[in-house]
Amino acid sequence: MRLLFVLICVLTISNTEAQTSILNQADSLYRNGNYSKAIEAYKTHTNQDEVSAKIAKANVAIGNYDAALEYYKLGAAADPKNGLVLYEYAKLLSKTKNFEASIEVFNTLMNIDYRNPNYHYEMGLALERIGNSTALNRFWSAYDLDQTHQKAIFKIAKHFLIKRKHQISHRYIDEGLESYKNNIELTSLKAQNYYYQEDYENARTWFQKLINLGESSEFIHAKLSMIHAEFLDYELAIAQRKLVLKSNPYNADAMFLIGKYYNQLKDYKSAEKYIKQALVLQDVPLDYEYQILGTVLNRQDKHKEAIEALQKSVKENPENISSEFYIVSTKDKYYLDIETKIKLYEDFRDKYPNTVYSKFASQRIIALKEEKFLKAED
């Protein structure tokens, strides 16, 4: 009997050591980024409740969110008071657009620890995504619990900017910048507040700070260009508008304004060039509705449908060169083969050699050929 007892103890210890070894091996695989192997190892552990959250985390790392949600759900059921597991589960639910379910889990978390500001903030994001006006209350709660919470401060300051309550917005922005002076989102709100207050001197300073922090967007450059023009600094205004064209070469408004600014500088040749280009781009026929539809579809990455809409535009008006060009540029996004893309642009350029779009086509051909060359070198 005693021998049997000893044997059972030895087997129990041996099994425990084996399971510990499996867990250590799986943890090591996870730490080293071998996530799929880690998942396989975790699944051999006898106590799946113990490793469900680990399997979920590894699935998140490889982008398998459905599996991750399944295992987080198991982990949460096995240990319903584990705040870390519930928090990761709630965030993933929100990330995968399961907002209602995410809000439920965040409510559970708040019952565990109401004073955790991130629970309130993340729940606010989920509420915001479903259009629930109480989202702002969650951001307020996050701020009340942590007055250095940059993301909560941003949401509150943005709310007051939208409401055009600029002084209140400034107050929260300044509070946030005290603890993080290079916060890009708050710096952007600061610039926008001054812009809408028509305090262009301060707006210029803060938009320029955004650029100094490495930011570059059509919005920033367009606003800074307008401000420079307010101060009659037309060369600076032109430089910023050209950066707008760099990101959006078909922006007729930017072309027209550059032409106007050149006119102010008495550079009439350049003014004529840009104003003519703007007029060409703005001269659209009645079939423009299909062209707009194509643009809207493209912005949703529905390129196949966009091509169909643009083809209808051309059918309505075979002389609509802009729609023909947009078909080519959409196929550029839709097709994978570089050679096919080059051929599309070459055919367009040869068909319409003396148009502004042929220049855009030529520029794109050069870029695609460079891309092809670099891939060949690899």
For the report, how would you describe the main beta sheet?
none
**Chain-averaged pLDDT:** 89
Dominant shape:
globular
State Rg: 29 Å
Cα separation of the termini:
71 Å
Question: Helix proportion of residues, in percent?
Answer: over 70%
How many strands in all?
Answer: 0
Strand content: under 5%
Compute the number of helices.
21
Q: Encode the helix/strand succession as letters.
A: HHHHHHHHHHHHHHHHHHHHH
In CATH, what is the homologous superfamily of the domain at 286-378? Tetratricopeptide repeat domain
CATH topology of the domain at 286-378: Serine Threonine Protein Phosphatase 5, Tetratricopeptide repeat
Helix/strand/pairing class, anyone? mainly alpha
* Poorly predicted sequence stretches spanning 5 or more consecutive residues: 9-16
Q: What is the CATH first-level class name of the domain at 286-378?
A: Mainly Alpha
CATH level-two architecture of the domain at 286-378: Alpha Horseshoe
Tell me what you see in this structure:
By secondary structure, the protein is an all-alpha fold. It has a domain at 286-378: Alpha Horseshoe (Serine Threonine Protein Phosphatase 5, Tetratricopeptide repeat). Helix 10 (166-179) runs antiparallel to helix 11 (184-196). Helices cover 80% and strands 0% of the residues. It is globular, with a radius of gyration of 29 Å. Keywords: Signal, TPR repeat. Pfam families: TPR_19 (PF14559), TPR_8 (PF13181). TPR repeats lie at residues 252-285, 287-320. This is Tetratricopeptide repeat protein. Residues 1-18 form the signal peptide.
